Amino acid sequence: MIRDQAAMTTTVQTSSASGSNTGRLVIAALFGLVIGAFFYFDLDRYLTLDALKENRDRLLAFTDANFATAVGIFIATYCVVTGLSLPGAAILTLAGGFLFGSALGTVLVNIGATTGATLAFLASRYLLRDWVEQRFGSRLGPIQEGFSKNAFSYLMTLRLIPLFPFFLVNMVSGLTRVSLGTYVAATAIGIIPGSFVYAYAGRQLATINSLSEIASPNVLLAFTLLGLLALAPIIYRKFAAGKA
Fold this sequence. Notes:
mainly alpha; 12 helices; 81% helix; 0% strand
């Protein structure tokens, strides 16, 4: 009887693992199909600075006539773009500032970007973390422990400094043991400065010829300093521990 129970337990565990793997494969396939369709149908052409400037009058007229609908479409689009790690987030942020104003545009961008980033984080965690930990667990242990203890400060730094791609931070964070609440809070707060800069620039859309005009060296330096400031608590704790 004990053997039968053990056999049943093993069967259930095997079935559960098989079902989990199938679920991962289905989700990964869906992600791949959507991303493939995005590039196959050349949808990225709508998320360029030229396309935004060419359609600004129509977009503004639609927003004025259907404000609530425009808000919903904007947030949903931003969520999809960030959730699937598609190009065009910077253009959408400019559009948010142009259509809704600097303040409201920043809020809407924050909602869409944080929601999309959270979906990407959860997808990365569900699809890849178990495999990564099984493959590299012994080597990642100290890194995982250090990151989990200072997750908020590290994530704030990664969000504030524009040298770290947004989509890459989403996926890598999913492979760590950082809690969902900490990830969402650090993301929502950390992207505010950058979102506001681009949303504010969107108000002068007609004068912008390149995204590099927005991300000037002075702006990048300011973001970098803010990002380093977020590491201050960690540096202080290590310094205090060393003195003790």
